[in-house]
């Protein structure tokens, strides 16, 4: 019996020399889940968020937004890794790309989400990190 599943992000995903192979595997998993009609599954969300971490560490910000964070569809109201996490990661990308107005919008959305965390359900709160970034902009 499956009681529930939630996505998990590996914070070291982009650090290994095998990161390009891992990125290809994650992108494939996301496509398979979507093709099977499970666009919002925890597995697809987890694959896309881990792909986002690899692309972020490679400083591929546009690809992170388009290929990984654009198609992700996390549960908006649940705790843990959720829509607030995605907004935070989008805000980071946009800030690094010099798109401050858009970054502020995403970071404000993340700061308002008090249940969002990074990496796991009991990871660091996103709202605190987003608020700190906003105050530095």
Explain how this protein is built.
With 137 residues, this protein is mostly helical. The chain is built from 6 helices and no strands. The protein has helices spanning 19-35, 42-57, 61-69, 83-96, 100-112, 126-135. Helix 1 (19-35) runs antiparallel to helix 2 (42-57) and helix 3 packs antiparallel against helix 4. The longest helix is centred in the first third of the chain and has 17 residues, at 19-35. The termini are far apart.
Descriptive key words:
137 residues; mainly alpha; 0% strand; globular
Q: Would you summarize the structure shown here?
A:
This protein is mainly alpha-helical. The model has no long low-confidence stretch (mean pLDDT 86). It has helices at residues 19-35, 42-57, 61-69, 83-96, 100-112, 126-135.
Q: What characteristic shape results from the CA principal axes?
A: globular
Q: How widely separated are the two ends? A: 47 Å
The helix count comes to 6
Give the number of DSSP strands: 0
Helix-and-strand structural type = mainly alpha
Strand content: under 5%
Topology summary:
Blueprint: H1 19-35, H2 42-57, H3 61-69, H4 83-96, H5 100-112, H6 126-135
């Amino acid at each position: 019996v499956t009681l529930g599943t939630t996505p998990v992000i590996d914070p070291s995903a982009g650090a290994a020399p095998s990161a390009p192979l891992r990125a290809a595997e994650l992108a494939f998993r996301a496509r398979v889940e979507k093709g099977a009609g499970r666009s919002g599954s925890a597995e697809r969300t987890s694959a896309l968020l881990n792909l986002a971490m690899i692309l972020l560490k490679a400083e591929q910000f546009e690809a992170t937004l388009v290929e990984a964070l654009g198609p992700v569809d996390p549960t908006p109201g649940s705790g843990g890794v959720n829509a607030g996490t995605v907004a935070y990661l989008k805000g980071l990308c946009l800030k690094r790309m010099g798109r401050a107005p858009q970054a502020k919008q995403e970071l404000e959305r993340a700061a308002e989400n008090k249940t969002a965390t990074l990496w796991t359900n009991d990871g660091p709160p996103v709202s605190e990190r987003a608020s700190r970034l906003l105050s530095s902009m």
